[in-house]
Amino acid sequence: MTLSATTDNRPRHASRAPRKRGPKASMGTRIRGWASTTWFLLPALLLFFFFVLIPIFVAFYTSFFNWGGFGPPDDFAGLGNYRKLADDPVFRGDLWRGLLIIVFSIAVQLPIALGTAVLLNQKMRGRAVYRAIFFAPYILSEVIAGVLFGIIFLPGDGLADKIVGDLPLLGELAGKWFADPDTALPTLFAVMTWKYFGFHMMIYLAGLQGIPSEVLEAASIDGAGPWRRFRSVTLPLLAPTLRISVFLSVIGSIQLFDLVWVTTTGGPTHSTETMAVTMFQFGFKRYQMGYASAISVAMFVISMIFSLIYQRYALRRDLQGAVTSAGGRR
Amino acid sequence: MGIPHLSRRSFLTAVSAGAVVVTAAPFLAACGDSGSGSDGKVTIEWMDIATTEPSKTLYPQIARAYEAAHPNVKIKLTNLENEAFKSKMTALTASGKLPDIFVTWGGGVLKQQIDAGLVKDITSDGSAILNTLTPVSQKPYQFDGKTYAIPYDMGGVGFWYNKALFKKAGVKDVPKTWSEYLDAVRKLKSAGITPIAIAGKDKWPEMYYWAYLSMRIGGLSALQQAQENNDFSGAAFVSAGQKLKELTDLEPFQKGFQNAGYDTPGGQAATMGAGKAAMELMGQWAPAVQKDASGKDLGDDLGWFPFPSVEGGQGAATEVFGGGNGHALSKDAPKEAIDFLAFLVNDENERKLVSSGAFMPVVKGAESELDKNRKLVADALNSSTGFQLYLDQAFPPAVGQEVNDSVAALIGGKKTPQQVTEAVTKAAKSQ
Questions:
Q1: Which of B50, B65, B179, B218 could make a disulfide contact with B55, Cβ separation 3.0–4.6 Å?
Q2: Which residues of A touch B257 (CB under 8 A)?
Q3: What is the pTM for the complete model shown?
Q4: Distance (Å) from the C-alpha of residue B15 to the closest C-alpha of chain A?
Q5: ipTM higher than the 0.85 cut
Q6: CA angle A204, A208, A212 (to 5 degrees)
């Protein structure tokens, strides 16, 4: 909301304004302007060039080779790696599991985050404490969270086994969790939800605070109950925040790596493996850099296509001037 | 917020200048270079994995001792955690510049580095020291009759077992054949004891079973032939998978083994060390790790027996599966580096390394420093009639990892013995 408001208020062609002075401005001023622009842009451009653009192109290039990571790539394979990728049951499984994680994130994690945010947006005692508590898991590094849950789900002696051990229905779960192909992905997903819902809750809280109380008061005066106010006022006004949150959630799910690596390394028998884990396995365990590059390119393309489509159709109202919004017009 | 007194402009200038410096630093750093100077001073770069005791203390000690005796030499030791070391070596190999001295397990990985022309052939330069070492310890580092590393540890894999638990289950003698072994597992199981601890998350401990079964059924020649022809579809390998399936069908492993690490809390070594499982198939380092991971010492309850033979199999029970550690030299390493490696395994230092409990002797006649159990391993090794290096080291990494992955899937019930051999063959053929 605030974003689009400032864009609208800015005078048209504001960015071009200095140019109109062009002929009148002295040569020295212009050179100094250029120099300072370059000076300010240089660090970012250098970083972007060396650590983003070059690696992307190198990955594209090496994905066409059978290359072990030693010496220059010289065994050209054409599209061989991509054909192998399409036939690889593990990679296909990665796609399926990725989709599951995305669907569950949006269907479970985000509603929980939204509900908590709405609750914590009310005036209540100890509100700040609750917010801090729910946000805390997000601040922990993935590795620490992974090790922590590794201990919690330890077969036999772990906290989780002790809790469910004597329960009638859940007792079956004891000793399984991360150790059984059927329960590993749901367990992983539970950990992900614990880890990330606080982040989305924080975004929603920020969004909720941007909703003017007058609108809600007006709705109350018109006779809207709490549900109606939420449904017809809060939710639509929160929509831009929701759209960003879904976007971040999907991109995060596609790139999911560290939490999986620490808790299960993708096992048992690939049941929690993600594209990023498969890429790591082939790149740094099997030294098949060419094939790993092909996986990274596939990840890049999937993220890219999703981002473009999502920006074009879902975020167009929120992001002016983005690549996909056709010149920034509505 | 945190920077209230700086004007916006000066702050931004400072930040951007900082960013430029940070960006440029790696490029500037790359310009300087270490190495031997003109004044006769030599710096040896040594990259190792000694992040745990006892080598964590012993290596720097030995390096300092060498420096004291040779004032012109400076040894720069960098220790990385095992997996981090492997990743770092990949990057260094790709850049074409290896540290002067680095740890290696030999086999396929070392072969790749040799083929890239980065490793020094020490067959003649190192002959003096190599002659004092047991021949079996040098095998993993020999290719086409040339030796590329100086070993400092060598051992074999076998069953470490808990004598008290075996007694409790009524298993009197250690199993000599596979069917005796399965009987022992059944007896342990019916006595309410978890027969085997295994690390399904790490996978390589599972590979040991398949590898040993293949060796016992097809003999060493079957493995060598399979590696040469890139074909693992032979009957011996399928049969090894079937025998392993017989074992897993008895459900002999600890609860939750599919997510158990080897040396992590609650993992294979900790389960074994805490007396919660009756045996594990592991290398010479097993007792040290059991103690470290569980905080308990099995003491005299711990015993060792070689992998049983399989009825009707080609391989003898005296053939050992295992491996060791060695130090290789980069092709540009100064001549002082090889002198230091000789110093590292000289009489005094070898005794220190072996008696520390983490290493097995490579110097002929150093077995006297061994405790009872590790002496059994050393005896098996020295009287062995054949030797096979760990499959995930002997084979190129892609094949070795496929073996680990596929065997884990077999034990997890997701692959049949045939599918294992097919997957491994496919990985081998695509090399």
A1: B50
A2: 155, 179
A3: 0.81
A4: 9
A5: no
A6: 160
